[in-house]
Amino acid sequence: MKLLAPATDNISELLVKIIEFTHVRQKVLTQNINNVHSPGFMPKDMAVEEFSALLNEAVDEHIRNRRLVLRDAGSIKFGFNGSFIAEPVLDEYARGLLEENPDEYLGLQIKKLVENSLNQQVAAELLRQRQETILAPVYRV
User: Fold this and answer.
1) How many CA atoms lie within 13 A of 35 on its CB side?
2) Using an 8 Å Cβ cutoff, are 23 and 120 in contact?
3) Is 140's pLDDT higher than 80?
4) Given 4, 11, 16, 56, which residue has the most CB atoms within 10 angstroms?
């Protein structure tokens, strides 16, 4: 998913990345639910902790040196012009739960979807507010 709104600063760029990441995660979690009865299906998830750690490091760098540096790690790769790729990874815990208790597995996937949706909504709202502030005309009296 490529957002149409331009990222006009470092914080906006990070918010766009969060929105894109949560969009991909929503698709992965939805596939986990849709394939609950598919023989041999292996549930996946996004590397949420890894992504969070990378963004925390980028924010720390921004605070220290006023620049945004995003580094690659594991299943997450940053590219040119603000692009990045985040690949789903096997969710071992969910796989075990799917084999032992499919109802509990579905509950876990729904909980993750709700959490992900909230994260996406918060990031989208923060981005909207930030862009309104940045793009708002300056009036001088």
Assistant:
1) 15
2) yes
3) no
4) 16
Report the alpha-carbon distance of residue 136 to residue 119 in Å, rounded: 25
Residue-wise pLDDT tens digits, 84-96: 999 999 999 999 9
Q: Which residues, including other chains, have CB under 8 Å from residue 43's CB and lie 6 or more apart?
A: 32, 35, 90, 91, 94, 95, 98, 105, 109
pLDDT, residue 67, reads 85
Where does 35-101 have alpha helices with state H? 48-65, 92-100
Q: Are 94 and 109 spatial neighbours (Cβ–Cβ below 8 Å)?
A: yes
Helix axes 10-34, 102-135, angle to 10 degrees: 160
Provide mean pLDDT across the span 106-118: 98
Asked if the model's pLDDT at residue 123 lies above 90, the reply is yes
Tell me how many helices (H) and strands (E) the chain has.
4, 4
Q: Which residue has the tokens 């300056």?
A: 138
Instruction: Specify the pLDDT at position 136.
Output: 62
Parallel/antiparallel/unpaired status of strands 84-86 and 44-45: unpaired
Alpha carbons 34 and 38: distance in angstroms, whole number: 8
